[in-house]
Structures are given as C-alpha cells and as structure tokens.
Amino acid sequence: MKYKNNIISLFILYFSLLLNLNAQVNFEPANRSIYNFLERMSIKGTIRLNEEILPFSRKYIAQKIIEIDKQKNKISALEKEELAFYIREYSSELRREGFDLGKYRAKKKIIDLNSDNFGFDKYNRFRLFSYDTDKFGLFLDPVFRYNIAKEKDDKSTLWSNGLRLYGSIGHNVGFDLQFYDNHESGSFYNNDRKFSRRTGYEFRAGKNGGLDFDRMNANLTYSWNWGSFTIGKDFNYYGSGEDGKIILLDKAPSFPQIKLEVNPVKWFKFSYIHGLLNSQVLDSSTFRFSPQRNHISTEIGRAHV
Questions:
Q1: Is the pLDDT of residue 30 over 70?
Q2: Helix %, strand %, coil % of the chain (to 5)
C-alpha cells in the first residue's frame, strides 16, 4: 500500500510540474488588427507563423511580439510604432513572459486619474478598467462602432455598442466575454446574407425600420504549458484563405462548443472542437406534406407554411 501511495504521489508531482505557472489562455478575436500585423511580419521573414488554426491566444501573440522586438532592425519606422502600440496592448502577457517593459512605462499619462486601474494605465494604454496580478487579472473595455456602406443610390448603416471582458484566475484559468448589440438600417439591412461572406444572424428583430441583432462570445479555459481545454461559445477559423477559409470560418454565427488544443512541440499542433450549430432550417426525412391541411407535419414537430 505504501508503495502504491508513493507512485500516486510521484504521478501527481510529475503532472504538477507539467503545468507552467504562466500558462493561462485568453483567446484573441480573429478580427483584431494584431493578426494583420503578425501576418505582415511573417511575410517579411521576421517571425514564423502558422495561421491555419485561429484564433491565437494572447500568450502566443506576446511570444511573437518578443520575437519581432528582437529583430526591430528589419522593420520600418511605421512598423516600429505599431510594435510599440501592441507591446502596450499585450503588456500583461509580456510581463509574464519576462519581457522588459521599463522603457514603455509612461512618464506622463495622457489623462491622469491617479489610478492605474481606470482610464489610461501605466503604459498609456486606455482601458475602462484593468487589474493585473499573478493571482488574478481582469480587463474591461467598452466597444462602440459605426459603419456606413454605400453602393450607387443604396446606403446602409450599422451601429454597435457593447463590452469586452477578459482575465485570469490563478495560473491556469482564463476567461473572456464579448457582447455587442447591433442595429442595422438602410437599403441592405434586410439581406439574409445567404450569398455573402458576412456572418449570419443569431437572434434578430425588426425595429424602427431596421434590424436589431446581438453577438455574444464567451470562453472558460483551463491551460497548461503544452495545451488547453475550453468550454464556450466562439468562432473558429480552420484552413488558409484571405476572403474565406477553406475549412471553417465565421460565416455561421458563433456556436456552443468544447475545444481541446495540444501543442507538445513546435512542429505539431492538434486542435479538436465539438460544437452544436442550429441552422433554424427545417430539414428532416420525416417531413410529410398534406395539401388538404396546407401544412408540413413531422414525427418530431410541426411547422406551418
């Protein structure tokens, strides 16, 4: 019995050593500008990037930023300014990676509220709220957007507002939440988006001559130094392509899922998702059409036409 207990203790110790203390994962939405920057740096040969599986974690992005910073002599003056901006944006993850942030610390804040938790932080990066320690991190930002699309005499507008929240608990748990309330109006708003690459609607309702719809993504992730396990509702991009991924992209709305990602060595990455997507399209071999009653019946439900 004592021998078995020792084996169990050694196994627990070994498993604990596998867990990197700074391994928490927060996935960065694939529509953020950092992806374009990293792609350009990859094309220039500054870094090597595998874009077949998106989104990246903020930790992975921070590691790539460190690689770019080591080769600043290969990038232009404008790209150096972009790099400085992203260093401030990912300062929390860079600090955990041991990156020296000393020269990026603000000597004078743009707007000083006498606090690093509200408004501009100590690196002059604006955040509605930020709190960052090794045991707990929380970041909150508002989201506002206004778009205008015009084609000949047709015009459409899209107005969005919401929030983005992400953070970490301890050394291995990360969480994130994004919520957007959208209102679209104009000549194009009632397009069902069947024949465009624009993301379809989740929940929608007409209002004041326009269309209201929401977007909501959320993830809870447990990670270790060579992998992560996620429960959430989000987008995943699989495959290559600029105007549409070959395998999976964001044409369908985000869907509930569990995801396992394993990256034990640099040359091997495995990603698995199991999700549930409801197309809201009636499609079953059990449908029977009855002309007399003018309805479609099925063994699992009934839909009137």
A1: yes
A2: 20, 40, 40
